[in-house]
Give the backbone structure.
Amino acid sequence: MVRGFVLAVSLLAGSFADAGEWVSIFNGKDLAGWTPKIKGHPLGENFGDTFRVEEGVLKVRYDQYTGPFRGRFGHLFYKEPLSHYRLRLEYRVVGEQAEAGPEWANRNSGVMIFGQDPTTMALDQDFPVSIEVQLLGGKGDGQPRPTANVCTPGTHFHQAGKLITTHCNSSTSPTFADGEWVQLELEVHGAEKIIHRINGEVVFEYEAPVLDEKDAAAKKLIASGAAKELTAGTISLQAESHPVEFRKIELMKLTE
């Protein structure tokens, strides 16, 4: 998206097996191919062992944090940006939220796509400029709480040709209880079409993500030469103060 981005995208053709083949991008043993960025800490420092691998599962935990959460949002970045691909994984929300985590982050995590290069993030930046595929768990209160929603840190998107500036936008998915494994699949055709599926069912469709010119972090990217229109970007898994687990993370590169 910015410095080094064009080169990285140009190298994608030789990065994976033939188009149409699912490739595992999480080996179930360690964080090889992934890099953490946690607010207040430099890129690559996995503060508090926030992201860890146990029994073949990538876990997000806060049990080694001292005191309250204090807004130490984290993101685990895949090693290269992508533009045309399918990504699928299974996730589940577990346990209790970290001490003093914000109420809106209760049973809340996400997968960030169209994200900025993590080397361009400020030390104290909350979230990468990106499109967030928001992953929510039900609160057990009988109220609907769909998952695979769209939130927009530093961005907007279009739907049926209309610019959508609402920060969070609900999908049509059902609500899922704590501890239930849910399959998320994302289908990304550059800026032309983005599709969210939950357990195989389409729950959200949109297109043409753009930088929010009023957002401070996005302004810095634009000033550094980034295009307002987003056609590619990084992928990252989120740590927003509630424990969550990921497994079976697979990628299929599309040739378009």
The two ends are 19 Å apart (CA to CA).
